[in-house]
Amino acid sequence: MELGLFTQPVHRAEKPWATALAEDRESVLLAEKLGFSEVWIGEHFSTKAEQIPSPLMFLASLIEQTSTIRFATGVINLPYHHPVIVAAETAQFDQMSGGRLILGFGPGGLMSDAELFGMEDMPERYRVAMESIDIILALWNAEAPLRFDGEYFPMTLERRVWLSHGVGRMAQTFQKPHPPVALAMVGPGGQTAETIAERDFIPISANFVPVSNLVAQWQSYAQTRERLGKIADPSIWRVCRNVLVTDSDAQAQDILADPDGTFAYYYRYIRGVRQIEEFREHQDKPLPELNALLEVDVALEESVIAGSLASVQERLVDLVDQLGPFGTLVMVGQDWDDPVMWPTSMRRMAEEVMPVLTQHADQLK
Questions:
Q1: Residue 14, class by beta-carbon neighbours within 10 Å (0-12 exposed, 13-18 middle, 19+ buried)?
Q2: Whole-model pTM above 0.90?
Q3: In the chain, helix, strand, coil percent, each to 5?
Q4: CA 297, CA 319: separation in Å to the nearest integer?
Q5: Residue 147: Cβ-neighbour burial (10 angstroms; 0-12, 13-18, 19+)
Q6: Which residues pair with 266 in a beta bridge?
Q7: Is residue 121 assigned to a domain?
Q8: pLDDT at res. 52
Q9: How many domains are there within the chain?
Q10: What are the pLDDT digits (tens) for 321-361?
């Protein structure tokens, strides 16, 4: 079992942007040093909290300072981009990084971005994303003449072509036939899990949903693979969780009990932006009332694994028992409000927790 890092990121809105970006870069460099297998970086345009609008630009700044960690977009929201641009830029990144790209894509989950781009209907954004990924996969290994008769991105390149001089040849990826492609799962299985299984994408389970959703996601994915006569390989499954190793269980409980602590802020934000119109009139209420309205305590109970080394190990072993062995545990990067505690937690996860978890997973195989 490998260990990855997912950084949306979610910072305090008042934190200077340059400070937050430097902190995010530091977390990736630490992950490389500790042997993390991959890092996932999000993309958002209209929020100061999740303040990386270009994951590829951010990750490109880390290529020369790293050598082993894989770079994953978590995710590129395809309805907000033209597929030709995404195909070309990701191919260039894959070449520059020596084949370390994982393309995570999605329809876009931040409602303010959806409004900003004039695409507020989620089913339509999903259809746009699926048409776009088809074009991207085709362009990664294509040359003119080209024609795509899509609903959203009709295009041709048939007349202005000079192949012997490169005109009409598309940007090629370093990895062949193409980089791995991943799609996140939030709900309990259903269409997304089935699409991932049908299209041979990497399944990655979101951190902000209960474990029961994860169980249902894998069941739906595995059943679809079985129906298609394909193997459901759990080694490619990424499972995201909020994890913090503290000096003691009491320290973790104090953090979780703080109505404006790191995890309370994180889940107040995550739950708030997902239902932002419904609670607009409540946004200025005291934090305890906001937390109650958004059921932050439920999220902390369902999705956060925090405590002493022994407690975190025990809860993660229990997670593996519930899900079965899977390929990569992706811990969520938080705002480093404590610049010692969070890097220390990453180190203890890599050096002390993961050997125990991997051994336990191996015993279940």
A1: exposed
A2: yes
A3: 50, 15, 35
A4: 20
A5: exposed
A6: none
A7: yes
A8: 97
A9: 1
A10: 999 999 999 999 999 999 999 999 999 999 999 999 999 99
